[in-house]
Amino acid sequence: MTRGTIKAWYLVHKWTSLICTAFLLMLCVTGLPLIFHHEIDEWLDPPAPLASLPATTPTLSLDAILARAAAKAPGNIPLYLSFDEERPVVYVTSGPTPDAAPAQMHFLGLDARTGDALPPYVPGVMDFILKLHTDMLLGFWAEIFLGVMGLLFFAAIVSGVVLYAPFMAKLDFGTLRRGRSARLGWLDRHNLLGIVTLIWASVVGVTGTINTFVVPITAIWKANGLAEIMASETRTPLGRQRASVQAALDAVQQRAPGMKPQFIAFPGVVFSSKHHYAVFMKGATPLTSKLLLPGFVDAATGRLDAVTPMPWYMQAMLLAQPLHFGDYGGLAMKIVWAVFDVLTIVVLGSGLYLWIRRRGGPADQRVREVVMAGEP
User: Fold this and answer.
1) Residue 234 lies in a domain
2) What residue numbers bound the domain in which 61 lies?
3) The whole model's pTM is what?
4) What is the predicted pLDDT for the residue at 232?
5) pLDDT value for 121
6) 3-class DSSP state of 14
7) Can you give the pLDDT at residue 372?
8) DSSP structure class, residue 293
9) Looking at the DSSP assignment, which residues form a beta bridge with residue 278?
10) pLDDT band at 176 (very low <50, low <70, confident <90, very high)
11) Are residues 283 and 334 in the same domain?
């Protein structure tokens, strides 16, 4: 590799790293407890006990559950209905309008067998950390900004690998040169840990970036993949009287045997059209449970308009969300994710240290140091 090529890659690595490092450190630090968010939530706020009933006790219809939820939040309309994976609990999210901001929404859990409301959900420390992690408490455009930082992080990883290649050609993998300057020792550690965490950091960086673009990705899906389905909205006006939500779920379940409901999106919200109940079904295995199959039921007539698989980019988004936090392989995978998260914090911190302790001089001199760093 010529000196000019090394210089170009060095500048890419330098500036992409410098621009994103502070934000990546914040994301790694806040992401560490979020890996164990389920366990921490249950420890800080154990779920309310349910009534002790026989296992054969039937559940109420979703329409009855929605009626009870409406009584608890008069004036609101249902936005989402979701199902607990471990307990017979149904969660209803409502708001004044379909496009209501999260702060305007009302979240209620109900026992699916009795319809009894569970104690109201009170946001805790993990909700604050999640909000800080996703958008720094600044809203949508801050979330997009962090997505751009994720792209710069990936560019820093790629350029770092390119710069490390000539270094690896001269020294054995894992070599830490001792008896030299402290800065050279940290350079060796930075390079070694960067390579060790390469795959993990790339996966988490890319999935994190995908997660920040949920809204525009979903908008593309609605504008393209759902165009034919949404065209049916002009045929039947949607009045105050709505079709049965339970019947809508039953109709979709008949078309998707062996699958379970994940959530139902009501007309006008992000994951539905202005006229449909969007019933999202999930598979029974750990992998297929992350891949959703939506069915669209006319909310005015109860007609099942379509059960259609999502396009690849929506499936990729659904897979990226749990993968970002290692939420696939149970506690063991979460521990692995946490270890790599800590190592990445060391990589980012050591990179910042190396820049602060730089020897000064133009880029050509910096390139010479990169070349000589591979000399034993």
Assistant:
1) yes
2) 46-121
3) 0.80
4) 60
5) 80
6) helix
7) 46
8) E
9) 265, 296
10) low
11) no
Same domain, 17 and 88: no
Outline where DSSP puts E strands in the chain.
77-83, 89-95, 106-111, 260-265, 276-282, 292-298, 304-307
Domain boundary among 101, 121, 141: 121
Angular region, 100: left φ>0, alpha ψ -120 to 50, beta rest: beta
SS (H, E, C) 142-210: HHHHHHHHHHHHHHHHHHHHHHHHHHHHHCCCCCCCCCCCHHHHHHHHHHHHHHHCHHHHHHHHHHHHH
Q: Is residue 6 part of a domain?
A: no
Number of H helices, E strands in the chain: 13, 7
Residue 5: how many other CB atoms lie within 10 Å = 11
pLDDT in tens, 244-263: 999 999 999 999 988 999 99
Q: Percentage of the chain surpassing pLDDT 90? A: 41
Residue 7: pLDDT over 90: no
Residue indicated by tokens 């002009």:
234
CA distances from 271 to 98, 106, 146, 239 (A): 11, 18, 23, 20
